[in-house]
Amino acid sequence: MMCFQLSYCEDKDEPPMNPSQVSTIQSFNSGSTDNTASGSDQSVTPRSTRLRKFRYPSFSKRSTNLKEFKLYELKSATNNFCISSKLGEGGFGPVYTGTIKSQRNSAKDLSVAVKQLGKRGFQGHKEWVTEVNVLGIVQHPNLVKLVGYCSEDHEKGIQRLLVYEFMPNRCVEYHLSNRSGTLLTWPMRLKIAQDAARGLAYLHEGMDFQIIFRDFKSSNILLDDKWNAKLSDFGLARLGPKEGHSHVTTAVIGTMGYSSPEYLQTGRLTIKNDVWSYGVFLYELITGRRPIDRNRPEGEQKLLEWVRPYLNDQNFTFIVDKRLEGKYSRRSAQKLSLIANKCLSRDPKSRPTMSEVLEMVSQLVEAQSDMTPRTPLQGQDAFDEAMKAGEGERTSNMGNEVKTTSSVVGDQAWFSGMWFWKPSITC
Ligand SMILES: Nc1ncnc2c1ncn2[C@@H]1O[C@H](COP(=O)(O)OP(=O)(O)O)[C@@H](O)[C@H]1O
Ligand SMILES: [Mg+2]
């Protein structure tokens, strides 16, 4: 899915970068911060920023473990960027699979994905810098690991490459499409939702500074050999607002169908934009549909508009991905949809933080594992029965956490505050 850029106010240019000094880049897109922004929407500031002070990071002072590769090493790793090694091509440029050979021990050979800034790559150099800066500093099991980078300038042009750990099971978007022969089962979808929430919660609340991902979407959630989900593509990420400020003001960039209405309308970016995108993603997991799909009949092209009439009635199962063939718990799917709806609150202040989302999704994952069948399950009723039994157990064991679950389930009043927006700018 292509990225878009709408111009409300352009990001200020990044300072020129010395390619041999990647680890000393200071700006990490903080140049776009609107330092004058504050005031009325101050309360958009996430709870975590109110609880503790964020230090605004100087990346120059942080060490990275990134390896600087020579172009010839990456040519050799990818069989000279051979077409048969090509995994795909996004906004940045082509991506190749390859192997970094260990000179001493072939058992230590490393499978990698090499992203090459394409000549047509419109995300470009600035995004390359951001990606190196962010992933050079942040590390988490639910973020794709950046192994290193390559930056060489030749007479024929510049070379900018990124080297990641290889994620053999591709991206979530692929497996939700008809292209994949692998079905993502309901428990797998819940686990993916949990992994992705954990990754986002870490970016928002897990460090002494805050990162807004800004391009959260199913094609940026990659799957490793054990189907653990990890976020990738940090080229559009931004530092959160400085202390005392409610948002950063940026050019509106993102992917069609994922950006929050307030960001599209004002260019004011907060972590609540990521929370909105996460809500859209949950509906992708539930329905198996893309946020915007021009190949569908009119009326079904925009996912959020299509699902809306089915949410609060008996027809809910109509929107659940048919490829699941009924092998899911209806209660679990409805609860996930309620979490999605909270993320999609029109008012950003009403959206939960990602740590709150993580807690809610984790409870669904636990309930799912509690219902692992002891006898073969037959159909929807058996799933629902097992789901109920699992919840009973948790009621007695988990005290406070159940409160959150019941608030998710019982939050029917929420429907009145549900998103209902007519995107005036895009889609
Ligand atoms: N670390 C990785 N391991 C395996 N495949 C990857 C990795 N990074 C990207 N890819 C694949 O490369 C292709 C292009 O990815 P990308 O440049 O991120 O574009 P987009 O996110 O716009 O699809 C996608 O098919 C993606 O699944
Ligand atoms: Mg991507």
Automatic annotation (TrEMBL):
In this chain, composition skew of type Polar residues spans: 19-48
Q: Which domain of life is it from?
A: Eukaryota
**Chief location category:** membrane
Q: Which CDD domains match?
A: STKc_IRAK (cd14066)
Mind telling me which PANTHER family this protein's record contains? OS01G0588500 PROTEIN-RELATED
Q: Where is the Protein kinase domain?
A: 81-365
Q: SUPFAM superfamilies per the record?
A: Protein kinase-like (PK-like)
Under which name does UniProt file this protein? non-specific serine/threonine protein kinase
Write out the GO cellular component annotations.
plasma membrane
Query: Lineage of the native species?
Result: Eukaryota, Viridiplantae, Streptophyta, Embryophyta, Tracheophyta
Q: Where in the cell is it found?
A: Cell membrane; Membrane
